[in-house]
Design brief:
- This protein has about 350 residues and is of the alpha/beta class.
- The protein is built from 15 helices and eleven strands.
- Helix 7 links the parallel strand 6 and strand 7.
- The protein is globular and about 55 Å long.
- The strands form two sheets. Strands 8-7-6-9-10-11 form a six-stranded parallel sheet, with helices on one face.
- It folds into two domains: about 120 residues, Rossmann fold (3-Layer(aba) Sandwich), CATH 3.40.50; about 200 residues, 3-Layer(aba) Sandwich (Rossmann fold).
- Helix 1 packs parallel to helix 2, helix 2 crosses helix 15 and helix 7 packs parallel to helix 8.
- The protein binds nicotinamide-adenine-dinucleotide.
- Nicotinamide-adenine-dinucleotide (NAD) binds next to helix 6 and helix 7.
Length: about 350
């Protein structure tokens, strides 16, 4: 079993709350990683974890990542995350969500909850009936709605900085881009890239999503792991985490890896090999922050134009990461971490 205090010490979490409610069966964890820049905002994930340790590891890892994402995005927010241990299809109920909402409420705004895997926009609206410490509600309720189009737009803007870094210009025309995952973000990204003139290769476990991309964007379908081998300008992981690993790295035949998936690097050992293969890696939490930036706008009254203007700055942030990596002779992943940590310490970046 994980020693929770050791873990907290290593990753520097401020607080981890174990939430339980016997009548509804709620078992949840709320992790607040860092609130030095503002309240900890992060989604609530409902997932049938194999064990308490698995749920704890996930919430600790995800909340820390939120701190870095908010910091590098220059948002007045800290990092937090929550997980409800259960199967959303079987275990979710109004009483369970209400019990969870009460725990969030007791934190008095230190943690602001949003949607994530297994928790929908409707669930968030329901939680909002019990606590005001909620973000990411529907556009009908003056919220920012589904964050995915904003995330896709941020990835698109960050890709421009990647193209500029590698090819000296940011034109998508004629560029070959392989997208793994045509879900909410991947499909919105495919549309933007197609409209900008890129040729697309697509892979998804759902054949209907692939068929749609072929029909709408003339995309070339790629089967399963073959997507790693595609000879292309950009490989865009938009499905799973951990996909840059000791096995996949041998297959990559792209110049740039830039996508929306969280935690793309299996571990930092792969960074050296990426550099040897001359592949430019766009740090995931810098590139996929569009959804968070969009949600954060709700806190001061949501205006889409303003939100999208801020999301477009992912381009500048990515350039800053590349420039620091070159100046210091470090990986782009390390440069992003250093920039986020500087922001957390209140240093100008
Ligand atoms: P989603 O669930 O809507 O889509 C994921 C897609 O990936 C699905 O179509 C699924 O069939 C496909 N997929 C799963 N395994 C695959 C595989 N092995 N090969 C090919 N396709 C596979 O999720 P999403 O909201 O589009 O998010 C995609 C990624 O981006 C996730 O890693 C998520 O954590 C990350 N992310 C999303 C947002 C957001 O705003 N939605 C924000 C930041 C990061």
């Amino acid at each position: 079993m994980i020693n929770i205090f050791d873990k907290i010490k290593t990753d520097g979490h401020e607080n981890v709350l174990v939430c339980s409610d016997t009548s509804s069966g709620l078992q949840a964890l709320i992790a607040i990683h860092n609130t030095s820049l503002g309240p900890a905002l992060g989604g609530c994930r409902m997932w049938p974890y194999e064990s308490f340790d698995a749920a704890l590891s996930d919430v600790l890892r995800l909340s820390k990542a939120m701190t870095y994402k908010a910091a590098i995005s220059n948002l007045p927010l800290g990092g937090g995350k929550s997980v409800i241990w259960g199967d959303p299809a079987k275990d979710k109920s109004d009483t369970l969500l209400k019990a969870f909402a009460k725990h969030v409420d007791r934190l008095g705004g230190q943690y602001i909850v949003a949607e994530d895997v297994g928790i929908s926009l409707e669930d968030i609206e329901f939680i909002r009936e019990t606590t005001p410490y909620v973000s990411g509600f529907s556009q009908e309720n003056k919220g920012s709605g589904d964050p995915s189009p904003a995330t896709a737009y941020g990835v698109f803007c960050g890709m421009k900085a990647c193209l500029e870094e590698v090819y000296g210009n940011n034109a998508f025309t004629g560029k070959r881009i392989a997208i793994q995952g045509l879900g909410k973000v991947g499909s919105a990204l495919a549309k933007l890239l197609h409209e900008a003139g890129a040729s697309l290769y697509v892979s998804d476990m759902d054949p209907e999503r692939v068929a749609k991309a072929i029909r709408l964007y003339g995309a070339d379908p790629i089967h399963g792991h073959e997507v790693y081998r595609v000879d292309c300008d950009i490989f865009a992981p938009c499905a799973l985490g951990g996909i840059i690993n000791e096995r996949s790295i041998k297959s990559f035949s792209c110049r740039i890896i830039a996508g929306a998936a969280n935690n793309q690097l299996k571990d930092s050992n792969v960074l050296e090999e990426l550099s040897q293969k001359n592949i430019l890696y766009a740090p995931d939490y810098v590139l996929n922050a569009g959804g968070l930036i969009n949600i954060a706008e709700e806190l001061s009254g949501y205006h889409p134009e303003q939100a999208y203007k801020k999301i477009a700055q992912i381009y500048d942030r990515m350039k800053q990461v590349f420039s620091m990596a070159k100046k210091e002779g470090i990986s782009t992943a390390k440069a992003a971490d250093l920039l986020a940590e500087a922001q957390l310490k209140g240093e100008r970046i």
